[in-house]
Write a structure and sequence with these properties.
Two copies of one chain form a homodimer. With 428 residues, chain A is α+β, with helices and mostly antiparallel strands. The first copy, chain A, has twelve helices and 19 strands. A six-stranded mixed β-sheet of chain A has the order 1-2-6-3-7-17, sandwiched between helices. The first copy, chain A, has a four-stranded antiparallel β-sheet with strand order 4-5-19-18, covered by helices on one side. In chain A, helix 2 (18-37) packs across helix 12 (407-425), helix 3 (39-50) packs across helix 6 and helix 4 (52-63) runs antiparallel to helix 6. Chains A and B meet through strand 9, helix 8, strand 11, strand 12 and strand 13 of A and strand 9, helix 8, strand 11, strand 12 and strand 13 of B.
């Protein structure tokens, strides 16, 4: 998960009848109660209690295999072996580098994809050795998202120990490219091009902290590097020619004046600028890196359209006020990031089922909008939630990241995640 | 010489009586005629004709000692030896790295400084070997200003051969730091801190091409690196905080709208921008490199003041429209270049004397405003001109720079320069 924003507000409640939600929720809680009361659940729970040490061992082992951005392969290969050892079928690595395995249901029904990302934000050479202080484990990436990966493995084993049948097939995926420049590439591939793309009808990402938190909205983002180019020239001798730095400054000044709503939260940023060779030359190229985000697809489109228009206006203005005899200014906004926006309605069965499970464990559900792998299915209309990995963690994306693997909370988290997956997949 | 601008216009003529100039000129031409008619001049001229081969030899030797910006020492040391061999007294290197020697007059009168810069614009590792095609010598720096250095040595020998007494003492200087970032540092030291600073009453820089061209105005420039700093933060999580890139963009947009006169020529430029670490972070620092120039001290001050004011306005505006709860935006304009502006009036004896000499050799005087070592004395009120080294040269500051050392023109150039120096210094 990155750039998370936790909100307890629930926009959908404002537009649908509270009674209807309550009714849907009642429908969801029945199957959850049935699962939790089953003999299989008891059997799986007993297994989970005994599987704790393996969970801890795998958490450490996985974290200590570096997985920098775009360099997840070593960890992916190890994870692929673990999926196979856990008894999944059709274990493989796809073209994008995602690793996955299937737990088949009785028929050839729809499929639920359960994903946890392999990549971290940390560059090559980062010390990823786990430092233990009691149950407090500190290491870059240990919470986000090695704990999600380890949780998923524990869930697979528990499902098998409980011998649960499921209506849907379960596809467990350790995916690449969730963080930063990865731009959700692993899940984009999985859902847009992968072999199961037409079969995945529900999607669960394990990439949050507290299991009461249910991410059902995807903050979308658009990122550009805009290169402003012109003829360049001597600052004194060629004074009067168009200057790309002036065009860029004009664009930035216009951008800075944009009005965006605070709700749905919408943001924009100039993150970096560069260009020019010397103080006494009119630059031939300057560039800026731009990030825009919104909880709302409509607002993201609005800010994006306004941005592209103001770049054009700034370029036209510079070409209008200075000489173009040696050439004009042009600007090329190159898309360098595109995290699709999306939402799974509060009334969607996947949200209500997850809510029912969370409540059944005595947790308080809390809906959030964030930027996770679930953005991609949400944008495609595939019901999706991002759920927590449990336990207390902090300092994600910082070198002093840590997670607490205290036994009781850790085993409970496996039970919660297993129950969500079962309830979403359906137990006949 | 760098960034030269040659103009034949003569602003001073508009404000002073043409007849008065003519009268001053008549006063100047008498002594010139006397010098040229003297037995010493005949003797020196004969010497110059015979000294041509040494001039060529020294031109090549000096050019092949690299003198990159801030790394003039090897050439300076060699030049110091040559000044000593030419019979000057008090030969020494000063703290700035300038090398110099004195040719005393009969008393302890005022001093005329004659300077030629040692440095080139070319970086270390540039091939400075002279490629000869007949009398066409090609090499980086060969015209600007190795030819000036070689000319000066030939003048010193000719003065001695002619046994000319001079009213003023002559200080011959090979100076550092004329080009680019050197920022005229050698001459600034010489005139502001050097041991002769209070004695130099006239100043002649040898750093032009055609000897008809007399630089009597100094284009001033002010250069800044402005660093805009702020608290930084996450582009989404901390959205709403002040952003230094927005402040800088605002400043650039305001700067781009400044109105400056085309005459006296006044210019401004953003030459480079940089800063920020990632697209999804609000930068903590961004910077821009700014260059402003003018033929007029008053206009340079105007554009400089306007620039500093608009930087402040842009910073204040950013601090006003976004949150400063994590800290404010600040901007620090750091002066990275300061070439003082200045002018020697057309009516000044040094200009009229130079004009008379140039005319006496059948050349057409042409007054220009440029940026040379003479900027410094002009700004201090010390009468100064920059004169030509003679010969045909081209492609200064380019790797294919060349100069033609055709014999007739080369020896004539030494005579012109010698006569200017004598006339300015006075021959009793």
């Amino acid at each position: 998960m990155n750039r998370s924003t936790l909100t307890s507000k629930c926009p959908a409640l404002a537009v649908c009848c509270v009674a209807a939600v309550a009714s849907i929720h009642a429908q969801a809680s029945g199957p959850v109660q049935k699962i939790r009361a089953s003999a299989q659940f008891t059997q799986a729970s007993t297994f989970i209690d005994g599987d704790y040490d393996r969970f801890v061992k795998e958490l450490i082992a996985l974290n200590e295999i570096p997985a920098p951005p775009f360099k997840e392969q070593a960890r992916a290969t190890a994870y692929l072996d673990m999926l196979r050892q856990d008894g999944l079928s059709d274990v493989e690595m796809d073209t994008a580098g995602n690793v996955m395995g299937v737990r088949k249901g009785p028929g050839s029904g729809p499929m639920v994809a359960i994903v946890a990302h392999l990549d971290t934000v940390f560059p090559e050479g980062t010390d990823v050795k786990v430092k233990r202080q009691g149950t407090r484990f500190a290491a870059p990436g240990i919470g986000d998202n090695t704990r999600g990966l380890a949780l998923m493995l524990a869930v697979v084993r528990a499902l098998n120990a409980g011998k649960f049948p499921t209506t849907s097939d379960l596809l467990f995926v350790g995916n690449v490219g969730e963080e930063g420049e990865g731009d959700l590439s692993g899940v984009k591939y999985l859902l847009r091009q992968g072999k199961y793309k037409d079969r995945i009808k529900n999607f669960i990402a394990i990439d949050g902290g507290d299991q009461g938190n249910i991410t059902r909205g995807g903050v979308g983002s658009m990122r550009y590097r805009v290169i402003f180019s012109g003829p360049g020239g001597h600052s004194y001798g060629a004074f009067g020619l168009v200057n790309p730095a002036f065009a860029m400054g004009n664009a930035i000044a216009r951008f800075a004046k944009l009005q965006v709503p605070s709700e749905p939260k919408t943001t924009f940023n100039i993150g970096a600028v560069r260009g020019g060779t010397s103080v006494n030359s009119i630059p031939s190229d300057v560039s800026m890196d731009v990030d825009m985000r919104s909880e709302s697809c409509a607002e993201l489109k609005k800010v994006n359209d306004a941005f592209l228009a103001l770049v054009k206006q700034a370029v036209d203005e510079e070409n209008g006020v200075r000489s173009t005899r040696q050439g004009k200014i042009s600007a090329e906004p190159k898309l360098i990031g595109d995290r699709p926006c999306g939402e799974t309605p509060l009334t969607a069965p996947i949200v209500q089922t997850t809510t029912a499970v969370v409540k059944s464990f005595g947790l308080t559900p809390n809906y959030s909008i964030s930027s996770t792998d679930s953005n991609v299915p949400m944008n495609m209309g595939i019901p999706a939630v991002t759920i927590g990995r449990g336990g207390v963690s902090d300092r994600a994306h910082a070198p002093d990241e840590w997670t607490d693997v205290e036994r009781k909370g850790s085993v409970e988290a496996v039970k919660v995640a297993m129950t969500i997956i079962l309830a979403v997949a359906g137990v006949p």
